[in-house]
Amino acid sequence: MMLQTAASNTIIQTIVDEDKRGRVMSLFAMSLFGTVPLGSLIAGALATRIGAENTILAGGAICVIAAGFFLRALPRVRAAVRPIYERMGILPRTEEASEIVVPDNLTA
User: Fold this and answer.
1) Alpha-helix residue ranges (DSSP H) falling in 1-108
2) What is the pLDDT of residue 106?
3) Whether pLDDT at 22 is above 70
4) Angle at CA 74, nearest 5°, toward 69 and 78?
5) Is 29 exposed, middle or buried (0-12, 13-18, 19+ CB in 10 A)?
6) Is residue 46 part of a domain?
7) Contact 92, 100 (CB under 8 A)
8) How many CB atoms lie within 10 A of CB 59?
9) What pLDDT, in 10s, does the model give residues 46-88?
């Protein structure tokens, strides 16, 4: 959870324009920390009805399904973020990236 939070925070702060960063980060914090109590309330109510084991199983299934949706959307996210990272110098430009030579012992 800590790794995901740090990675999300880093990505959001790098792709957002500086004049909007404070607003976006406040929405990010509110959505991240504001949904935890709500999710805990729902999980507690569900555990009372169907049991703790089944609630954990349902939560895991929802995570796997959400990961599948994210995996399908990942190419679009990368395509949207890449020009921003190229402009900032974090990633090499597409033309430059094709010129990078990778040693044979690093390709597999």
Assistant:
1) 2-15, 21-50, 52-88, 94-99
2) 60
3) yes
4) 160
5) exposed
6) yes
7) yes
8) 15
9) 999 999 999 999 999 999 999 999 999 999 988 988 888 888 8
Residues 95-106 have a mean pLDDT of: 61
Range of the domain at 79: 61-99
Position of tokens 């324009």? 17
Asked whether residue 13 is assigned to any structural domain, the reply reads: no
**4-25: string of b/e by CB count within 10 Å (b at 16+)?**
eeeeeeeeeeeebeeeeeeeee
Give which of 82, 101, 104 is closest to 14, Cα–Cα: 82
Sign of CA dihedral 56, 62, 65, 70: negative
Is 104 inside a domain boundary?
no
Distance of CA 64 to the CA centre of its chain: 14
Residue 105 located in a structural domain? no
